[in-house]
Prior knowledge:
Layout: H1 3-26, H2 40-54, H3 58-70, H4 103-116, H5 123-137, H6 157-163, H7 171-180, H8 185-192, E1 199-201, H9 202-211, H10 217-224, E2 238-240, H11 252-258, H12 265-268, H13 277-285, H14 287-302
Helix pairs in contact: 2-4, 2-5, 3-5, 8-14, 9-10, 11-13, 13-14
Amino acid sequence: MDSSSFxxxxxxxxxxxxxxxxxxNAQLSIDFYSKSCPHLLATVKPVVQSAINKEAxxxxxxxxxxxxxxxxxxxxGSLLLDDTSSFTGEKxxxxxxxxxxxxxxxxxxxxxVEKACPGVVSCADILAIAARDSTVILGxxxxxxxxxxxxxxxxxxxxxxxxxxRPTSNLNQLISRFNALGLxxxxxxxxxxxxxxxxxxxxxxxxxxxxxxxIDSSLAQTRRSNCPRTSGSGDNNxxxxxxxxxxxxxxxxxxxxxxxxGLLHSDQQLFNGGSTDSIVRTYSSxxxxxxxxxxxxxxxxxxxxxxxxxxxxxxxxxRRIN
Length: 322
């Protein structure tokens, strides 16, 4: 092979490698099911709406499932898999055990979708749509969900233990974890705004309300009434992450941080004299900026390492591989 032909071959190979690296995300599109399941979105939303009507907290729980799925080896539905005698999933990893919830809602959506379009739509995509619908129903922003993910045949409890940010994380740890997934510091602060809805367990904020000085004293006092100092006592007692409007998606979360009323240590780290203080101030005073940045962050998070093409499968049951 002469040098000219060799150079052309190298260039061709480089292009093919670049295409293969970028193809996973390129195959996601908002109209992926437009022909194979044209009524998909209209099938999903009523099930989500019904679940939230029964329990408003469920919207936050479903949104959290999507976060915890995407942060562990990508948005592939691995979190939804049950443990079996021969398979260990992610549901009993430390960040999920006695905490991740809403799986039965995903089951109900899957059943409805299977009736409309059998064997077509992945559980990973159902979770992505349900997270968006939950946000919208609770007053949050709307966005078009990119679709075309396939479902993982594996899961990793170890990865779940190591990949999902802990409520004890400091600012540098939060930034590092999000950056490792291709999410910027601004994305991290915007996506943390999902804590404007939902509840936290006493075990995750006990140290903050008894030991930290960067917390509003009245909030600490209020939370102590339902979260005993002694570990093992009342660990699963719940408190709203946003005291004022725990079932309404808006920017109160950031206003709370400025007033030292973040419930989790990791929340208050976003406004504690560090590099993200200015972003928190922006979101606290400009809800539209927060909403648009939250949407951008959700779309980027949904792009994390999806299984596409022939990789993975379309599960018949979200709790087990086919």
